Amino acid sequence: MPMIVFNFGPLSKNELALSFDNEGAFYLIQSLSGLGGKRDEETMACLHLDKQEKWAGFFTVYISDFDTVNIDGHHLKIGLDEGSLEYLVFKLEKFLSDGDFSPSEFIALSRPGRKYDIQVYLRRIA
Length: 126
Prior knowledge:
It is a single chain. By secondary structure, this protein is α/β, with parallel strands linked by helices. It has an eight-stranded mixed beta sheet with strand order 5-6-4-3-1-2-8-7, covered by helices on one side. A hairpin with a 6-residue loop joins strand 1 and strand 2. Helix 1 packs antiparallel against helix 2. The protein is globular. The mean pLDDT is 91.
C-alpha cells in the first residue's frame, strides 16, 4: 500500500513535511500525470501525524494560479501552479532513482490567515 504522511513542525508551525515511501511517490506521480486535462485535482488517502498521534487523512493536490496550502481537520490541500507541479514530479522521480530527496526543501506556500509562508520539505519514509 502506498505510504504518504504529512505533519507540521516539529520546530515550527510554518514547516510542513511530506514523507513518502517508493510506492507513495510512484502513486503520486501517476495521479498527478492526469491533472490539467479533465481533472483539476487529485485526492488520495494518507496519514496525518499530529503531536505523536497518527490519524487517517487525505491529501489533495490541485492546479491553482498561485502556490497555496490549507488544512481542514486531517485533510491537507495544496494548490500548485503548472511550474511547481512539474517541479514536484521532477523531485519525486529523482527520489525514485536516487533513493532520497536532496535537497529536501521543495517550496514555500502561502496559507490563508498566516503571516508567514509554509516551507514544505520532502522526506523519505525509512
